[in-house]
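Per your request, structure below.
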């Protein structure tokens, strides 16, 4: 790591100063419409003395809105008098993607959550990842990263952490998930963990918690309420914000293997055969893909590889081969 050059990103906030600071991570990005221009990523630091630090992020994918809605709100309203330690808020982590309303960056097509550990001399997305890897993650004791399904998936609202080889770290993460008190709480495995922010944080020994709170490229009143209440609960759980955790019932789910995921093998029009939150038996038809090029062709059936609850589904009406069609989770 020491052979890497310094990050080109300059922060306008001082992470060691008490009080509230609203500023930017300024990333030089010279281009046709802005010579010597920069990407200005909003950041807020709320600090009150020594103590644990939470790093809160939304907009890791640019078309997911519960996180940014909750975090711009928290940055505006959290009073440092109620804080012990630090809260670092980056409500729109992949800011170019967030501005474009797209999952990946319009500048370099970078998927932030596949770009870690990043590079100080890489693309814009890689430079942001590198800054998180080397400057922000090391400051944090707990890392909370909001996601939802974006434009192409829709989820039942859940808070999640990974099953980890380090059981003490796993335990802390699941305690934070329980404190968040979403209607569902998920034990996750990753099917594609390389390059993820999650993996970067966990490999550094940080407590890492995430969500999937809906999707479809928008937000819902219910999912935004869950996000706002949940993140305050997590801060209370850590002791950074004073006050008791406001717990509500949650149903624990598990995604124990790759059999949870079903992928489309054909292009076409997707018909989901059960709705989110409904149950399916192994072998039952989860979704059908209808060929649209001509009439008279039987739909392709996607069958559940395990019994469980439909936790996520493809959102747009049209699907392409390779798209994630459905995710089944099991009740714990
Ligand atoms: Zn996401």
């Amino acid at each position: 790591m020491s052979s890497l050059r310094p990050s080109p990103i300059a922060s306008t906030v001082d992470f060691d100063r008490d009080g509230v600071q609203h500023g930017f991570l300024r990333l030089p990005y010279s281009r046709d419409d802005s010579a010597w221009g920069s990407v200005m990523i909003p950041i807020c630091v709320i600090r009150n003395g020594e103590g644990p630090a939470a790093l809160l992020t939304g907009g890791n994918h640019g078309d997911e809105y519960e996180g940014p809605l909750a975090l711009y709100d928290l940055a505006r309203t959290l009073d440092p008098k109620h804080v012990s330690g630090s809260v670092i808020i980056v409500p729109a982590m992949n800011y170019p993607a967030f501005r474009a309303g797209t999952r990946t960056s319009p500048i370099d097509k970078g998927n932030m959550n596949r770009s870690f550990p990043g590079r100080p001399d890489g693309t814009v997305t890689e430079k942001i990842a590198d800054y998180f890897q080397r400057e922000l993650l090391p400051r944090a004791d707990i890392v909370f990263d909001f996601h939802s399904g974006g434009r192409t998936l829709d989820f039942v609202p859940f808070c999640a952490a990974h099953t980890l080889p380090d059981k003490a770290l796993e335990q802390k993460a699941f305690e934070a998930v329980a404190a968040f008190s979403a209607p569902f709480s998920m034990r996750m495995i990753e099917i594609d963990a390389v390059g993820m922010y999650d993996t970067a944080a966990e490999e550094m020994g940080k407590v890492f918690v995430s969500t999937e709170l809906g999707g479809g490229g928008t937000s819902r009143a219910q999912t935004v309420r869950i996000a706002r209440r949940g993140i305050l609960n997590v801060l209370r759980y850590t002791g950074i914000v004073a006050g008791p955790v406001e717990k509500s019932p949650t149903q624990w789910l598990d995604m124990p293997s790759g059999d949870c995921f079903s992928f489309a093998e054909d292009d076409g029009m997707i018909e989901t055969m059960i709705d989110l939150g409904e149950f399916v038996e192994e072998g039952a038809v989860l979704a059908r893909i209808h060929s649209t090029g001509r009439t008279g062709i039987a739909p392709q059936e996607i069958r559940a590889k395990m019994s469980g609850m439909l936790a996520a589904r493809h959102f747009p009406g049209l699907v392409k081969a390779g798209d994630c069609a459905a995710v089944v989770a099991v009740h714990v």
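The radius of gyration is 20 Å.

Regards,
D.
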